[in-house]
Amino acid sequence: MSGPTDVAACVEEARRAIAAAGSTEELRRVTAEVSGKRSPLAEMSRELGALEPEARRQRGQHLQAARAVVEGLLEERAAALRFEERSRELAASRLDLTEFLPGSPAARAARGHLHLVSQTRDELEDVFVGMGFEVAEGPEIETDWYNFGALNIPPAHPARGMWDTFYLDLGEPETTLLRTHTSPVQIHLMERAVLDGALPIHAVMPGRCYRRDTPDARHLPVFHQVEGLVVDRGITFADLAGTIEVFTAAYFGPDIHARLRPAYFPFTEPSAEFEITCTLCRGTGCRTCSQTGWIELGGCGMVDPAVFAAVGVDAESWTGFAFGFGIDRCAQMRHQIADLRALVENDIRFLRQF
Ligand code: DAH
After folding, report:
1. pLDDT at position 140, please?
2. Distance between CA atoms of 190 and 207, rounded to whole angstroms?
3. Ligand 1 and 324: CB distance under 6 A
């Protein structure tokens, strides 16, 4: 027959087994072993009946206390295991916010930038604004009057052959068109200035133009020009030449110069073509400039009195000069781009260089 020492030993054995249970699952097995129907303590309780009343009472109390201790240990361990297990679960399922932190700069989506033509337009505007010009814009769809008529190019005039025109299929044939140059913006500006009594004008007008040209290394059917117009009192050809030279040095650098060569444009008289030192050979002559050392950038001249008459500017009181040149051509010259078509092919390896 086992005595109180066996009870104490049972409790110690139970304490050890409970502490060793590493999970709720294991603890369930341990619970059956230490407090189930087949546990040593249950066995001892069943044997109580064979004892004398006094010994049965004492041992009964002893066993009851032991079972209470074991129950307490089981509950405590069960709670501890539940806490550990829940914590592990939470840690495993927690939203990992570090995943959403920005990665290395290289992994971030690349940020774009303005197209080279837009950058060039902005830089050209800056140079002219620095010289006191304002910036104006006009529509890309024009009537025959603005693109030709008011610029002293009447219908059937041979000079129309200078501009291969895209006409729009609207109303009367050949009355509405995609502007072939930015010169019609001169007409809009002068008309408005006359109406508002707002002469003089010192303005540059950048924008997109269209011509039925087959694309090649130096031509695109959709291209960009910047127009210039000064209408003021006492303006002379010297003002024009000085403006072109200052602009050329400011935009291309001090070793690039401008020269004017006699030319014909219906809306200026006299007219000139303006050329700049070839930026590829710096004037010594190369293939790009056909060995001349010069590259044509645009046209210019003194505003023809016929143009003033078309918009109602008094040619006795006002004189003016105008110029127009290609923005794409400027970008080509400044960055030595062999083929202008690269500007519209959208090859990111090309565009990213600027
Ligand atoms: N509009 C002309 C062209 O596209 C260029 C031009 C020549 C503009 C002379 C002017 C000018 O303002 O005076 O070919």
Report:
1. 98
2. 18
3. yes
